[in-house]
Amino acid sequence: xxxxxxxxxxxxxxxxxxxxxxxxxxxxxxxxxxxxxxxxxxxxxxxxxxxxxxxxxxxxxxxxxxxxxxxxxxxxxxxxxxxxxxxxxxxxxxxxxxxxxxxxxxxxxxxxxxxxxxxxxxxxxxxxxxxxxxxxxxxxxxxxxxxxxxxxxxxxxxxxxxxxxx
Length: 166
Description:
Blueprint: E1 19-23, E2 32-34, E3 41-46, E4 54-57, E5 78-82, E6 85-92, H1 99-117, E7 125-132, H2 143-153, E8 156-159, E9 162-164
């Protein structure tokens, strides 16, 4: 069954705020954007040029089942899209431990599902963002790992809690 990740009730109206956050209350509900309560933000979106950006919640909203089962596929929390750019976003709120490998697996699986349901060639810039509220600074992903992720998915990957829109 085909799944539409872009034309869905999970897609919020476009916003062009200079600064807003992406939130995950981690209570079994979908992720969402917010421009007023920075304490809730898992990731900060810096949009100095006030580009119109759409956020689409994926996890807990766009449901994809594993083939032949009623088991839900592991997906990232959402995606940001504008003009020819697509950012996948996985939100974490973990301390130390295995948060980054888990985030990368969810992002990579979401890429696989997107490609199975959409032609992504219209997106010139594609990025996977692993964001952790407890580790807002840049988390190092070595060059070889970034290259391997790009070769597998066609997406660049970063681990930081700020998403800068250029």
